Amino acid sequence: MINIAKPQIGEEEKKAVLEVLESGMIAQGPRVKAFEDAFAAMCGVKHAIATTSGTTALHVAMLAAGIGEGDEVITSPFTFIASANCILFVGARPVFVDIDPATYNLDPALVEAAITPRTKAILPVHLFGLSCDMDPLMAIAEKHGLVMIEDACQSHGAIYKGKRVGSFGIGAFSFYPTKNMTSAEGGMITTNDDAIDEKCRVIRQHGMRRRYYHDELGFNFRMTDVHAAIGLEQLKKLENRNLQRRVNAGFLNEHLKGVILPCEDPGYTHVYHQYTVRVTGGRRDGLRAYLQENGVGSEIYYPVPVHQQSFYTGDLGYRISLPEAERAAREVLSLPVHPALSQADLETIVDKVNEFTFH
User: Fold this and answer.
1) Looking at the whole model, is its pTM more than 0.85?
2) Do the Cβ atoms of 94 and 321 come closer than 8 Å?
3) Domains 11-232 and 238-357 share a fold
4) What DSSP state is assigned to residue 260?
5) Class of domain 11-232
6) Could you give the C-alpha distances from 65 to 51, 169, 197, in angstroms and in order?
7) Superfamily of 238-357 according to CATH
8) Tens digits of per-residue pLDDT, 162-214?
9) Where exactly are the structural domains of the chain?
């Protein structure tokens, strides 16, 4: 089976973990600080704050930005549910705006109409490794005095008009095993704001500014040095692995037939966390089954938009129609694109997709 994702852990990561274990500094320590500094440099920001996951990175970012009870946050319905749940965690309410059908990202043209007196922030999701269209989103945020929180959990190293994602507002990244880089599990917040940096660090560690003096309610969202050691080695390999993802995506773009290919306009550098095609005419599920039968893994990200999840329609009472997100959920299919693919794997993926689409 050609897997949809394949985490690549090398001897460098294993050696780094053993060094941490032998050092006795296992909890949040010097490796976490080194990882934060290196990740901030990669993103082109002043600060990076390591956490236990992408979800906790988003949660802490919300709290640090002062978002709370009664506030509204505009975001995408076509994403992993954590993007929206983190808004709920702080007592605010997600306001869903439909997506651009070409990019699957939040449609900037629809955002301003969703702003109300309760709106506190915009949370765009850089989905599948492609940056959102940040210029109009930043202009809207500035015009209305809104916080910008970027969900960059799928887009490590992606670029928009010369800037890395995570450098426009407060960024949040995930290091889950299937991401472009991993720390086994973990997350990172990025910011240029000194006050946000300080607030995130306090929230991450039980509300402490100095040991055993608790100034506010906080959490234990600290990354261990074991995870940071893996993350540091993975970060060193990120650029080359992203390049290989782009090479693999280029081959698929050139040879796949009968499906709608991913979008990458000038000024964007897609890092292909997922290589997602659109399969029209009600054939998506048939293609997925055919690929499975022929040894090619694939996945649907995401089969149900957030606003149609049972918790949102039931407990939260969402009754809205977002046709582009709903259509994407019926038509998208992600194919393997990860750096561990061989040329033979890529040719098999192309052959099997094209066999199905030409039938």
Assistant:
1) yes
2) no
3) no
4) B
5) alpha beta
6) 16, 11, 10
7) Aspartate Aminotransferase, domain 1 (3.90.1150.10)
8) 999 999 999 999 999 999 999 999 999 999 999 999 999 999 999 999 999 99
9) 11-232, 238-357
